[in-house]
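pinging the channel bc i need a second pair of eyes. not urgent but kinda urgent?? the chain im working w is below, pasted from the shared doc
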Amino acid sequence: MVGQIHGAIIKTGFSSCGYICSSLIKSYVNFGQLDNSFEFSNGAERLDMASWGAMMSALVHQGHNHEAVTIFHSLVEAGEKPDEYILGTILNSCAAIGAYQRTKSIHPFVIKLGFNAEGYVASAVIDAYAKCGDIKGARVAFDQSFNSNDVIVCNTLIMAYAHHGLVSEAMEIFDKMKLANLQPSQATFVSVMSACSHKGLVDKGCLLFKSMDSQYGMQPSPDCYGCLVDMLSRNGYLEDAKHVIEIMPFQPSPTVYRSLLSGCRTHGNKELGEWASEKLLLLLPKNDAAHVLLSKVYSEGGCWESAAIVRRGMTEKQVLKDPGYSWIET
């Protein structure tokens, strides 16, 4: 179908229209027809930045990060000046694949073009450094940004600190936001609560959750409730986590039940583990985590027969555990 539309575009003379070119390229990439998208881009007389941006964004969205980076370098080598949208997209790609050296090479390029003043690009630089393990580089990028009073940029650094277990630093940025009279967003609270969760600061995290309504007049989002359940479960407050699930004004997501189940495994609560697993399997009957975590709850509690039954059930239902993986930049 995409090929037929491509033919119609050529026949009607719209192959030079930037918007149509962008849409066609995204369609090829979304359907996994990378060769056709590359062939079209190479055959076009001259694609504008919007078309190149659409292609790279689609590639990153579909997980083809290395191909996106290759196109970016080709653009730069051809003397083109990528816009802020392309720079943000390619930095997101670097973050996804842990491309630290590429992040360091793109950052000066961002500063040279003056895009460190753009919140979208500044937050992408911070995120890329943090996900590559360089939290100091993330802070330098934050300090270099002219948007350190931008909520999105602040949220990005708070989340970066949270993932690195740096609670004091995360709270420092949160306090700076309050001093600057910046209205925190739902994402801000998810970030700071996540930092508290990883450091076991349950009381502080609960106070932050309550302050959303009492101080800021905000109704917590499903993500905030999910973060609260994760914090309570991770730190052994399993009955409290179950209570939050039962009273939350939303349909609990699979992630919420998975957090509780993981906490049950960590803290050895078989009864709640069975409850969480049952709820999770009602939503996702073939979810591998529900089976694997429940099996570990049983086995680590000495209930080997029950663990074996769960494992046999996985085989009978043809539920496969997704293999783990990791990578490093060479």
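so The chain has a mean pLDDT of 80. and The two ends are 40 Å apart (CA to CA). — does that match what u expected or am i reading it wrong
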